Amino acid sequence: MKKNLNLLISSTFLTAIFGISPSAWSMELPVDNENDPKHRIRQSGILNVSGTSSFQNDSYGEGLYCLEQADKDLSQRNGFLDKAESHFKRSYEMGTEDAPHAAYKLGELYHEKQCLRKSIRYMTKAAKKGHLEAFRFLESLDSNNDFAQYKLGVMYANGTGVLKDEKKAVELFTLAADQDYANAQFDLGVMYNNGYGVIKDEKKAVELYTLAADQGHSNAQFYLGWMHENGSGVTKDEKKAVELYTLAAGQGHSNAQFDLGWLYANGTGVLKDEKKAVELYTLAANQGHSNAQFDLGVVYNNGYGVIKDEKKAVELFTLSANQGHADAQFDLGVMYNNGYGVIKDEKKAVELYTLAADQGHSNAQFYL
Q1: Torsion of CA 277, 282, 287, 292, to 10 degrees
Q2: How far is residue 223's CA from residue 211's CA, in Å, rounded to a whole number?
Q3: pTM to 2 decimals?
Q4: Distance, CA of 36 to CA of 14 (rounded, Å)
Q5: How far is CA 337 from CA 171, 280, 346, 349, in A?
Q6: d(Cα 253, Cα 223) in Å, to the nearest integer?
Q7: Which of 170, 228, 274, 337 is the most buried (most CB within 10 A)?
Q8: How far apart are CA 116 and CA 138, in angstroms?
Q9: Any residues with CB less than 8 A from the CB of 362 and at least 6 apart, and which?
Q10: Closest CA to 197 of 20, 9, 14
């Protein structure tokens, strides 16, 4: 069963970009304290009697040591910088207390190498963990760098490393979007679509999604397709929705694959084609899409476009039910209650009905 899209801040906001969400700059910032003896030891690059670094088990310290050697021995500078990069990456990946510092140092290294986008990525990683100097670095770029503007906008939109400020996020996204940065155009569209930091304006959202979609942005293509399918901010046009979902689905977008499958299954905006629906549901289900797993289970349970296969239906209902899908929990309960595709098990059925009923599923409540 197809559900309405819940238009929230996109996965662009919620994936790798956002790990931890510190509440404010009032947190204890992990910046270097020059009066801290540990700081002085790190900066000294102390050598042991064998002439090697004393930071054998300290990747961050090893990185600092290599930076010192790079400044002292210009003939081998590039080699030491490469080693420093490797140590700082290891320190960051280990997630120790030095991780924000390591990310900042990587940002500095990439900036020196004129790899600005890599530099901004690591500065953002440091800033979102409260590293003040990294945040200041990003602010120094925001007047003329669309990528930095976008990254800062994401931080303000989610309150990551800074006080949440949706109006500031809109301002920064607008600066980047005006430079044709697709991610910013899309996320600014999300802000307008939901009224985050700005007066809600679905027509403006459609305009922004269109700009990003025209650049091949799969999330924008999907959201724009949803707007056309439902007539939100634009005249309802199911054929246009099919076109846009097809573009996003072709890039592996699981929501687009599922919604496009639903349109094919129901002949909405396109000729009904159950086999095509099965193909699309399968693509989405294989990516863990719970609605697709459920609908594909229904397809196999009833033989819509495929040979009826109750065991396959049980398998798919189980995958979806394990993700908390109430309809899947209920239908799987029916399968266990009647021994369809699985050994009959009324206790298991009750367990599944209960899970669905706790989510307000009326049929499950009735069966219990």
Answers
A1: 60
A2: 12
A3: 0.72
A4: 36
A5: 56, 30, 5, 5
A6: 11
A7: 228
A8: 11
A9: none
A10: 9
